[in-house]
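Contributing: when you submit paired examples, paste them exactly as shown. First protein:
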Amino acid sequence: MDGSLGSRTAALAAPYSDDPKNSGIPRYDQAKLNQLAAERAAAGFQLGFHAIGDRANHMALEAFAAANATPASRYRIEHAQVLLPTDFDPYAKLGIIASMQPSHLLTDMNWAADRLGPDRAKYSYAWRSMLSRHIPLAFGTDYPVESINPFRGLYAAITRQNEAGTKTYEPQEKLTLSEALYAYTQGSAYADFREHEKGRLEPGYLADFIVLDRDITTSTPQQLLHTRVLRTIVNGETVYTAPH
């Protein structure tokens, strides 16, 4: 749908606060987008849009509505970093999945407030606002744009702080550790229509899991950042063992 906040190409409904002549680059005309979405939905595709700016997210929601989206469709928006305050409820009503990458916040918080200004910043990386409206969250890392290390994302999700712990970004939007873990596991499985075979440690599910060097449920946020994987098991087979 658009570009990125860092390059000021994310499509915004109003100009950038630090570039008042620029509102980003929307990649589609709304009418054409609606037509494309409706055609692909009718053909049975699960739709997903990359959308970062609030205008891009709004256009995606309009296209989903044109495609007769319902919660059963499990359509999704990748990134969903900035929303119009009036778009949270349509997001929830259509059952759109917010496929987000919390580690983006660690990078973007250095300049996001400058790009958006204080009012729009309140509706950016809005994990708590989404969850409170029962918008499904599916978390990932966005590797190779960001580090593949998911523990950075867990740290970002529960603290909304930079890795040094010296700067905080809209702390009212942080999650609990259990909420963030759910989004990374069961939430992502739900987005893939596979919540009955992966995302949980239960009989009958895929034996995909990792062994860590610490109990992350009792670790401090800073300790969480330094978590190491000792062993990785995929479908019951060990595929990685950490060097001693």
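Second protein:
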Amino acid sequence: MTDTWFHTTPDGGRSGPMRADDLARLFQAGRIHAATPVWREGMADWAPLSSVASTLGLPAMPPPVPRPPLPPPRRGLHWIWITVLVLAVVAVPTLAILAAIAFPAYNDYRARSGVVEVVAHATPLRLAVQSAHAQAGRCPITTSSRVPGADRAAFSNADVDAARAALLAHARVESLLTTQGALEVTAGHIDPADRCEIMVRLQGFELAAIDGQVLTWWLDPDTGHWTCGGTITDRYLPAACRN
């Protein structure tokens, strides 16, 4: 067996070959330690220097103290997920507040748009009633339900009846809100001054302030001016129809 030794280096390499007394001097100089792995021919594997101290002529050394195992790394949320979580916590209440503001405002806008569209679709009916009154000197009557004692046969007008039917059909089918529109449309005269009246009862808005309420127009025969009003809450009425 040769007296040629090797020892490991801190960077994972090895140093040697060297004689036993050279290895001992390295230990005494503090360049290697009791736990430094050493080897020579005939050894099955590398062994700590302390285990071969007597062979090297060194005093007996206690075996190296085993290093305690490192604690496992603490598992935690990655900073990206922490950021996402914080943003989510902040965003949820913000979105809830925005929704609470936006949804009612959007529903009001849709309701107002539906009423405005019905008002626009009623224009041909107003023109037909005004034209019929100009020709006959009195208001055409489309139904007796609004005018107690009135006789439909006393004065009706085909153009007025056609415009009324078109308003009913168009408002129900083509309104901005599909089912919104006119539930009932009547035309007739009211006292005093024999003013012509048109009443449009609304449906399908799913709002108590609109469903079942009426839009009403009155024609002043002398001036030809229509006055708009009704029982609908002002916030849903066009500006020209508000009280």
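If you have annotations for the second protein, write them as plain sentences, like these:
Residues 79-121 form the longest helix (43 residues).
Residues 102 and 127 are 38 Å apart (CA to CA).
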